Amino acid sequence: MSRPERMQGGAAVQSALPRKKGFLDELKRNKILFVMLIPTFVYFLLNSYMPMVGIYFAFTRYNFRDGLFGSPFVGLENFKFLYKSGKLFSLTANTIGYNVAFILIANILQVAMAIILSRLSSKLFKRITQSIIFLPYFVSYVILNVIVYNIFNYEVGFLNGLLTRFGMEPYNAYGEPGIWRYLMVIFYVWKNLGYGMVVYLATITGISNDLYEAAEIDGANVIQQIRYITIPLLFPTFVILLMFALGRIMRGQFDLFYQVIGNNGVLYEVTDILDTFVFRTLKQDFDVGMSTSAGLFQSIVGFFIITTVNALIKRKDEAYALF
Amino acid sequence: MKTAVSNRIKKAKSQIAFEAFGYCIITLVSLFCIFPLVLIVSGSLTENSILMREGYKLWPAEFSTSAYKQLFEYPEGIIAAYSNTIVITIVGTALGLWFITMTGYVLQRKDFRYRGKISFLIYFPTIFSGGLVPWYMMLSKYLHFTNSWWARVFPLLMTPFLIILMRTFISTSVPGEIIESAKIDGAGDFKIYYAIVLPVIGPALATVGLFLALAYWNDWYNTSLFITKKSMYSLQYYLYDMLNSARFAQEMGIYTGDIQLPTESIKMAMVVVVTGPIIFLYPFVQRYFVTGITVGSVKG
User: Fold this and answer.
1) Chain A residue with the nearest C-alpha to that of B117
2) Complex confidence, ipTM
3) Under CATH, what is the fold of the domain A87-320?
């Protein structure tokens, strides 16, 4: 990387931070460290911070000829239109509802699996099952769609094969929007159980054995040990995972919904989330202003939720808060 | 003395009961996790006509490799998608690991004054972003990523979560005193990074590397947004395209006349072929995995 670019990188780091006395001293003292941050800095600038300027699209009637700042300014018209479409409430409710269910159910099961697995004595059994449970995490969402189809397809699906063999009526899952609420959660858990389990397992492995031995001497049984030692020590890990997950509460799992539901309009009512709506508005209608305003709505509500949760956590215990 | 002995017996009893329960539950969950994958492999090894007649089963009624043979009869498309995905995965993972380790190292240096603020700047996009459209416009209109390999490499290079993971690992496995004493001995900051830090963070390299490789391998999203040339499709998007359009059918039809069109068993064979390599990566990194994945707070 050439010299001028380096200087530019340093200068931009500076402008992104509140200007503090002694910044130049720090730059001089830790020059190499700043240089080492350049790729990351460039990445987040281009991938995250510069696009924030584009929020302005939400307030324009965008057209390609005039570009970002040339397109006519229309104020809150896009938001009004979004609100009037009548979908905003159900989309938001779906998005938050699904994500809360995903986060809570998956984390509870991940913690439970990690605790159970950590108490088993057969090393070989642990290694094999841990790998198997982790396996779905490797499967892409494109393939998850194939799996769902294999199981629930009306004519050749595994489920109907099973039902007809036992003399029952075949079940048309793709015609029943209601059950997809539960199915989506099951798919999510299937795919992510192993990942979270391993994260919690890592924390459990780090707990000193002395604690358990002391508890044993005091007569604590397995359940008590889990209740009073393991779970409290897993709590910080849970909070960090929660905060990262909450950051995506207004987006969350676009791949899952887009791939599994696809263009199946029958299921939209219960499975459409803000992300799939924005994606369709962009790709099919190419309505830049409207989809940006929906995206901005996501960001603002999401930001509000996470800062609220963080403030609540901070009030309870400063150490657990993210910022 | 007596109570200690009875405690021990009580403990043994509760431990045995818990373990028995544990083996059952874990076995059931494992079956739940692997069952859909068995369906796919079984489907790929079944003749399509039998599949259509009898439906998906856990074990093929009759083994047949014809789906794989048909899949590779005209392999140009798959091979192109395969090779570009392998290259992208390797390049992206290597670059990503390099940048993430450097960042993790800098952000855990106690003598680096802005580490808290920069950590927050890295975390902030997790809680607030411009949304899909401005991001898409930035990459396509201003960086001209449309039909460029950058579109498939750049977006997945790093995530806040992986950076925090790396920083936590480095700060717990390389004591600050070692870095300080190396500095006193005259080692430069970059030298400390590659000579002292890199050699001892194997587990984190394996873990973060696996996450990166997985993201690149399974990516269809960036292709769907930025790539329109079929020869540049990622493997997953190639599969997606095959599942969702008749193009594949036409291709096969044009080449071979009256051969059956994208049959269920060909699709299953394709799924197996697409997923295979990345799954084989796991056994190699598994032993590092649990040690490499300790998460710490953003503030550090």
Assistant:
1) A17
2) 0.86
3) MetI-like fold (1.10.3720)
